[in-house]
Amino acid sequence: MPRDPDPPHDDDAALFRAAIGPVRELPPAPEPAPRPRPSPRPRMAEREESDARSEFHRLLDGAGPLEAGLLAGDALRYRRDDVPPRVLKRLSRGQYAAQDELDLHHAGAAQAETMLRRFLAEARDAGMGCVRVIHGKGRHAEGTPVLKNVVDRILRQRADVLAFHSAPPAQGGTGAVLVLLRPR
Questions:
Q1: Cβ-proximal residues to 181 (8 Å cutoff; 6+ apart), any chain
Q2: Domain, as residue range, for 95
Q3: Is residue 5 in some structural domain?
Q4: What angle, rounded to 10 degrees, do the helices at 146-157 and 109-125 form?
Q5: Higher pLDDT, 153 or 7
Q6: Number of domains forming the structure of the chain
Q7: Is residue 129 part of a domain?
Q8: Do the beta carbons of residue 149 and residue 159 sit within 8 Å?
Q9: Which end of the chain, N or C, is less packed with Cβ atoms under 10 Å?
Q10: Sheet with 161-166: strands ordered across
């Protein structure tokens, strides 16, 4: 007996319902909570800081003239307005005893920056008043001494640095700097 090529669709649906049995409808699922919006970030400020940082490093690497750059024999000196000039003079003579020191020889500019920031924070937390940072004289540098300029820039930016001056010749001369820190 020949088979019907297209059985009626009603029979298939009836067979399916008979095979699965009675069906109960599930309650409607609540909609998922909306994802929280990301917190705003100061992207423009981050970009400007990054651009300024890369420009500074580009200038230090010799890609352009560094107008305010220190040379190998130049002395570092700086004091905040609220620090008397006599304090800077005493610092230049080495009359403050350095309680700790950091040697940045053989460090790259980025590594030296990280090391110096960490060292100053730890020294201040430990209650130290005066520290010495050895950056080298930069005589082997072609052009501008990189570490000396990095140290100068970072020390001027920090609020916990009251004053700094290149060390006297017996303590490293223009290859080291004595830093006076604000008390905690």
A1: 120, 123, 124, 128, 129, 130, 131, 160, 161, 162
A2: 48-181
A3: no
A4: 40
A5: 153
A6: 1
A7: yes
A8: no
A9: N
A10: 77-79, 161-166, 176-181, 130-134, 101-103
Report residue 131: phi and psi, to 5°.
-135, 160
- 66-117 pLDDT, tens digit each: 445 777 777 889 999 999 999 999 999 999 999 999 999 888 888 999 999 9
Name the DSSP letter for residue 182: P
pLDDT over threshold 70, residue 65? no
User: For the domain that residue 123 is a member of, what is the CATH number?
Assistant: 3.30.1370.110
Q: Say what the pTM is.
A: 0.62
| Strand spans (E) along the chain | 77-79, 101-103, 130-134, 161-166, 176-181
User: Beta-carbon neighbour count of residue 22 at 10 Å?
Assistant: 5
What is the number of H-type helices and E-type strands within the chain?
5, 5
Using alpha carbons, select from 136, 144, 137, 138 the residue that is nearest to residue 58: 144
What SS3 class is residue 179? strand
pLDDT score of 62 more than 60: no
